[in-house]
Amino acid sequence: MSTIGRRGIHYLHKLNSANVSAALLEKGQNRVIDASLTLIRERAKLKGELVRALGGAVASASLLGVPLGHNSSFLQGPAFAPPRIREAIWCDSTNSTTEEGKELNDPRVLTDVGDVPVQEIRDCGIDDDRLMNVISESVKLVMEEEPLRPLVLGGDHSISFPVIRAVSEKLGGPVDILHLDAHPDIYDAFEGNKYSHASSFARIMEGGYARRLLQAGIRSITAEGREQGKRFGVEQFEMRTFSKDRHFLENLKLGEGVKGVYVSIDVDSLDPAFAPGVSHIEPGGLSFRDVLNILHNLQGNVVGGDVVELNPQRDTVDGMTAMVAAKLVRELAAKISK
């Protein structure tokens, strides 16, 4: 934990020990939340005005960092991922052109509204119910600035629930979701935590925020994962049958009759040979080109997405996995921007 984080918690404990009223604490918490949302709102306004002034964009991907790691069931390193991904996106070792030929330096393709200040919010004693609401509201603030669309940098996979909830509510209906992951993340409440990174898609399906949920790259799934998949009508594609499923997954057509397509990419969907810097190392995953083929060939109106579960604390090979995550963000930005 950062020095600032420790000081914040220490200060909160001093307030509690001094018998400060619940009303006064809540007032302070509300001020922190308001300030956090104001920061995102003003940044989104600035970037939205810029994109509109340039003209010609129907949709423009906008980065929003959510540095949350405490809902991880193993390691909390994903909280440190957003700045590492940004650094890798703009690393001089590569150019700023996507494989589709879109130029990331063009704000009509990619902008950045900064991070939700997760640690500062938690330091004030705000619980996960309210934190998830702040994340959702932050996403909605981005979407209010047409033509910005959220491209979220995790953080652990628990962030997908409040993000997809916001996208669905803002658009006025469910979306189709393409979810690439080693795990289905659909436990009812993993280890008793309803907001666990292993439970995010259970919350999404319960809320009716998705019509279809397609999960690919799966290779670590329990009986509960399969049962929950059947309960919610999830289309689960396990790696053990990938050779058979490849043609279907590389020719997906999603989003017809709903508000669009949301793409959620857990970096551990990739085989650890391509992405070792993750908390949960699961051999036997997708190659990087497998993922890009699925993404590039996807037909549908992609209205948002996230790249999650990079763990910089395990990314020991010269930031290789950060570069992998950055490449996923770059290509997803090209898919969103129109």
Automatic annotation (TrEMBL):
Gene responsible for this protein: LOC109007360
Origin superkingdom: Eukaryota
Catalytic activity: L-arginine + H2O = urea + L-ornithine
GO term, biological process aspect, one: putrescine biosynthetic process from arginine, via agmatine
Annotated residues for binding of Mn(2+): 157, 181, 183, 185, 266, 268
Essential cofactor(s): Mn(2+)
Keyword line: Arginine metabolism, Hydrolase, Manganese, Metal-binding
Cofactor mode of binding and number, as noted: Binds 2 manganese ions per subunit.
A Pfam family matched in the record: Arginase
GO-annotated molecular function: agmatinase activity; arginase activity; metal ion binding
Record-stated family: Belongs to the arginase family. Agmatinase subfamily.
UniProt key word Protein biosynthesis: no
EC number: 3.5.3.1
Protein's name according to its UniProt entry: arginase
EC class of the enzyme, as a word: hydrolase
